[in-house]
């Protein structure tokens, strides 16, 4: 079903204009961070607005415990700003963390407090300005252009007037406020569940690893969940404890369990999810202490500031990337990134199953620039998990390395459009691709050439993690 919010067009003449940057980025998650850095590095006066007091989005606010793979199983395909930030975090997190992760590009654990500081520093060093504790809640329209963005914070309400607008809210808030059509969830409105992630201390990694070795890896771990569910010590639902990310030998992050029926664009649902999520963590801590070797003495130190949200809106863009493109590993003339992450759609309720489809090792598909261009708006671009795709592709594109890559492309395009004095559709896409490659991004060996040589595989597979 296609949805559309009534666009706001009236300008409240009483509101003061607080900022007039070339480029404003709303949302300081993976896509917004990369977008702001890329726009600023390419010469645009850039403002990054974030509702919280730190950057990182789901990776910090929701304590998502690890970065999904940067590689296609053979080589890094997410490079550029995303890879830079990953390596900076590894270095900044100290010697022990570095030596644990120095050769890893896939499933690197997130050291959340270090990452927040790395993001602050790298965004500021790029030349972009940051405005925290600020929510964007209205857009002002003039024809097909956004002429202003109304923001709200402790200083009051005011208008940001930029030339170009980047929506990196994860929920396509700006696009929806501007009246861009969007879709949400599956055919019956079903959405992937949320997860309240958390950090524990007092764990014993050596003991846990030994348990996996002695009992046959993840099967035994899954069996502990099944047994606890049978005994009533865990609710029904997700069987797998995926995403245990070891930050040190004793501190681990968890992405475990689901809260169902949450729409991340509704405050009431987010409230219920926060409360139910924290209750579920208490149950899981008891389970881990009782059933899983290595976690007998754990102590909960922190849960997400909000429930982790996997999907909300997907905008209607100039092109909608669909599962057939994914499965045939299609390339496009206007590719701005490559994606190899598997299609990872979590169960919509406790009795359904997860959908998994994956590409062969060393293979990827292209992500076209047009997926980020919302229909009917000339100076707005959307980056991150809400770009124009069908639901299966969203289940793959949504992960943080991809969001960095899309963000870098959106920010670079914004700087080019600002310099040229036009909108996002007027820039030279080949010029954008050239600049992305010069600045470290990887767009495939032969951009624009379709790789139909090997079919993708679907079904149930053994994979290291799910997110
Ligand atoms: C439980 C869970 C586990 C996951 N596991 C992994 C994993 O292991 N590895 C991985 O790579 N990915 C994982 N993902 C996916 C990934 O974390 C997200 O899809 C990704 O962070 C999306 O990035 P984004 O920049 O599009 O949006 P977000 O990370 O959601 O960032 C959006 C930002 O915009 C801000 N914002 C939103 N609206 C406004 C507004 N109106 N005004 C001001 N600010 C606003 C938010 O505060 C937030 O900081 C997981 C997701 C979940 C929920």
UniProtKB/TrEMBL annotation:
SUPFAM superfamilies given in the database record: FAD/NAD(P)-binding domain
Transmembrane segments: none
Keyword Iron-sulfur: yes
Top-rank taxon: Bacteria
InterPro entries attached to this UniProt entry: FAD/NAD-bd_sf (IPR036188), HdrA-like (IPR039650)
MF terms (GO), sorted A to Z: 4 iron, 4 sulfur cluster binding; metal ion binding; oxidoreductase activity
Protein name: Membrane protein
